[in-house]
Amino acid sequence: MNPLRRLRARISASVRAKLLALVLAPLFIGVPALLALVWTWGNDTYERLLRAKVQADLVIAHEYFDRVQQGVGRDLQALAGSSRLAADFPAGTPQAMTELLASMSVRYGLDFLHLLDTRGRPMASARGRLGALPERTRWPAVAAAVSGAAHTSIEVFNPDELEAIDPVLRRRAHIKLVPTPAARPDDRASEERGLMIHAAAPIYDHSGGFIGVLEGGILLNRNLGMVDRINAIVYRDGSLPLGSRGTATLFLNDTRVATNVHLFEGVRALGTRVSDAVRTQVLDTGQVWLDTAFVVNDFYVSGYEPFFDGKRNRVGMLYVGFLETPFREAKAAVMGGLFAIFVAISIIGSLVSLRWARSIFRPIERINAVIQRVERGDAAARVGPLTSRDELGRLAQEFDHLLDTLASKREELQRWADELDRKVAARTAELAEANAILRKAQEHLVMSEKLAAVGELTAGVAHEINNPVAVIQGNLDVLTDILGEAAAPVREEIRLIHQQTDRIRLIVTKLLQFARPGEFAGYTERVNVATLIADSLVLARHTFDKRGIEVHRHDAATLDVEINRSELQQVLINLIVNAVQAMGEGGQLTLSSEDWCEGDERIGVCLRVADTGAGIREADLQHIFDPFFTTKKGHGTGLGLSISQTLVQRYGGRITVDSTPGRGTTFCIWLRSTPEYDESPNAPGFRARWFRPAE
Prior knowledge:
alpha+beta
């Protein structure tokens, strides 16, 4: 037995152990539970505080980065509005324009500065030579300036664009990619694109006429001064306690192109890439990341947000974060001290509780010892006098008195109880058996009397009707022979009389089928169930057209069945009429057919009649095929489903039903392709219903 089971067994068998558990439970269960709550709440508060801190840091970095972009735009707008530029352009010489642009570029710290005409075509550049610059109006900033509005955005310039502007920019933009764990796979060896703050502003002459566009920008790749300024603003001296340090990074897509995160001393982590989880959340879905993340070589409380180019495409990320390790170590130290205090309190409380509970244990142990001796057969065992005068002392005295009484009564009481149990069990079994026999006999008698009376009455009526019908048909044939050609004027009337007498004969045959169904299997033929359904719908259409019932058909059966067509049609029409009556006004009637298969063998066809009516109660489902059972009080005889079941069973088939009250009913007619006849004389399903095997 393992230690836990031994402990449980000891507690269950010992009052002392239970009392100890009761006394110590608040300390050994409550204190750990309290510690767990403190740990959980502390961790949750710790995480929320760190996320709130990095979220605030990210807001500050975002505002500063926006001001940098706006500052570039304002500087370019101020340059475009300078009086010297308006005076010298476009009449100035290329050399003069180049010198002017170069001085402006140096003054405002721009990495490139172009002068464009009113259609956005390059006219002059701060670096002097004009390369084969691609179409400038494809950039949103230039397109806006050509339209008369200054605009600033972040754009990604490809290597050829950078080369055309200035080969120095292409070399600055080139960053070798460093393999990074957990990053999304990338086949590239380096990042050669440039992340640029791109701005353009229109130029107007002194009369207010639009004369050109001034375009410029600052390359963010390797712009370490900018990320250092962001870091200095967000994480000023003393803003991060416990020795933590802050970091800031600009990403082009998922690659660090400007960062103060270090791979190792003196080497910044340019070219390392962010983890796939961060890239998915920030760049793929556009959400802000506020959580702990592994950054290059340690865990940082990190905030990432995407930034967009002029066409609102996510092209990079802004990151700020601070080292988590000092905070985590401080939290662990505080929690450890708190846990140590709780443990000390628990130990002291346990010692005090055990000393106080000892006065209760001793009397209980004596009582327990007596109980154990009695269990071993020592009927004379008693607690005896105790020094304790409290409730436990009085309990011991009463316990001794109770043992004396029980010893004298136990044997006699046990004997009486055993005898009573035997008698009750025997009488209960006899009563249950008698009730079951009586109930079955009563049901059998009532139904036998009903069916016998109906059978005799039906056979007698059929016999009495057949005699005059035979006389009518015989005399009608004699009349036709005697009259010969003289009967021509009334030949149609004679035909109608023949037809009606045949109808009477058919009705009589149906009555006899009910009285003696085993003797009237009828003529069988190969029947196509789809055609039969169509014919039955024609005959029953008047019942559902006037009720506004919608009819659906699904003919999937591929087999024909051998059966008496009129009998099967009778069964189908009976089920259709019952379904229509169950739906009242409005509903959906579905007639479907499919092959009946058992394993790989095709047995026959299954016809389904489904309605959306009120359904059948579960208590009525086991009786619906019983003769004379009906839920339509005052309407119907209760024989329709009974006769239908008998007709189908005659050919080796069956009818099943599935119903849900309030949702509708589905009847399934299972017909064998080759019938298996039931030749035994049998009133409609009587023996199968009333003589069920015991379950």
